[in-house]
Predict the structure.
Amino acid sequence: MAARLDDLDRKILAELQADASQSLDEIARKVGSSKTPVWNRIRKLREAGVITRQTVILDPEALGLEACFFVLIRTSEHEAEWQQRFLTTLRARPEVLEAHRLAGDIDYILKVRVANARAYDAFYQALISEVRIYNVTALLSMEEIKSTTILPV
């Protein structure tokens, strides 16, 4: 069930998503409130599970991770044991930024960030050595047009 948010909650969340390193004083000033009510709202949003964690966003290219692949996976295996091994394998691979189970012809899609095609091939070889996969299609992103972690609130 979705959390019930009022306008002040939404303004606070928008500010935190834009820059969570802002001080409480800065956020309070921007949302038209004072520090204590803002702090109380943030605490309640954490307790309600709306705010799950705070982190930093790194530039992958500045770290030499210039290649982004979207990996489409089809499997003929649907047993719980295979699925658990597959999920464990994905969670252990830092190159996998996102993994989604899909409806339709493709079973899973992965977002994989690596240095180059050679690094992707090493990832691919490691993946297929750990779990049996029926078909893998890798799509190289030529240009990232939009990428955000900001949810519409």
